[in-house]
Amino acid sequence: MSPSATTEMSAVAAVSLAWKRAYNDRDIDAVVALYTEDAVLSVPGMPHVQGREAIAGFFRSRIEKAGDAGLQVEDVPLGDVVVAGSLAWQWQTFEMVHRELGVVGSGALCTLFRKLDGAWFIAGDISNLAEPRVDLYAHVESLR
To answer: Would the pTM of this model clear 0.85, i.e. be above it?
Structure first.
């Protein structure tokens, strides 16, 4: 692998690490600054969120709730970065860890990055929640 490819992969991985640091520090402005203006966020059970302003609104309440609940996000493990020109992606698994109860949730996500003006930003995030599991069929039945 060329030194420039390694540098780009490290730069993308640094954005992922900065996101977790900002989330765990409850720094909404730092989280949102990592997204492109037209970024798309897709989380389970909710309509997608598009645009930096909408993403700010989405995370504002969730980061506050995570802080109130004593939750931190941790990577388990951090996936490899793939870079192709001005686009990159990274698959990751994560855990939601409570300061007293330990791991209370886990899942996976795939993040798409775009390089703009020499810097990497998050252009898309899609995640799932593996634990706690939700029985979709039981949920649908409860709606009837």
So the answer is: yes
